[in-house]
Write a structure and sequence with these properties.
The chain has three helices and eleven strands. It is mainly beta.
Length: 221
């Protein structure tokens, strides 16, 4: 089966038109804007879409008839395009795996000298495994805020502080899930236990992602 892209009718994920030193940001947005993850930064484009690259044949047995159908294998694709000060393509990174999305964005922020105008906070739900919990028992969920400062992360219920974590306690931050919309889930892995466990699952809006990464990952890319 030929590749199929999940998106608005008639869209194409073909990005072979992008030429370093030639293609403008406007051209990229015109042809791939439907896949824009929404970083809110003119110097980098993160395109993300769901695509099937192959399929397997399967036989459907229906009462009174035997028919054939195919089941597609779907996966997410990530494309990073960096632009110079004139918004012309400077670098293209294809087929970025989900586990490497944060690494690519942090590397870009360091190369470009990106600095957020303001420190950001995440105002979404947090889920963490309880200290005595197991995955079979499910996640104990917490709802609150993570406030980013220059040396720590402060977790609260929106009213009072639950606990703080020094930035040198961050082991990693990785993309977890981003199907649709402008919010993705990330897993923040910490070196030491906290009241919410070592793995804290964050909901981060795309427009806030770069400021947050620039604040919490310079020493932990």
């Amino acid at each position: 089966m030929s590749p199929q892209v999940e998106g608005p009718s008639g869209v194409s994920a073909d990005h072979t038109f992008i030429r370093v030193g030639q293609t403008t940001r406007q051209e990229v947005l015109q042809r791939l804007g439907w896949a824009d993850a929404g970083l809110n930064e003119n110097r980098i484009f993160w395109g993300r879409w769901r695509q099937s690259s192959s399929g397997t044949a399967m036989v459907l047995v229906v009462p009174g008839a035997i028919g054939g159908d195919r089941q597609r294998n779907w996966s997410f694709r990530n494309l990073m395009v960096e632009f110079d000060e004139h918004e012309v393509a400077l670098r293209v990174v294809e087929n970025v795996e989900d586990k490497n999305v944060v690494r690519e964005l942090v590397a870009w922020s360091q190369r470009s000298g990106y600095r957020p105008a303001n420190r950001s906070s995440i105002r979404n739900s947090f889920a963490a495994r309880a200290d005595r919990g197991t995955w079979t028992q499910g996640l104990q969920r917490y709802f609150g805020v993570m406030q980013v400062s220059t040396d720590s992360l402060e977790f609260s219920d929106g009213k009072s502080t639950a606990f703080k974590v020094r930035q040198d306690q961050i082991a990693s931050l990785k993309l977890g899930r981003m199907d649709t919309g402008s919010t993705a889930s990330f897993t923040l892995n910490l070196k030491d236990q906290t009241p919410w466990g070592k793995d804290i699952h964050l909901g981060i809006r795309s427009a806030e992602l770069l400021p947050i990464l620039a604040s919490i990952t310079p020493r932990n890319p």
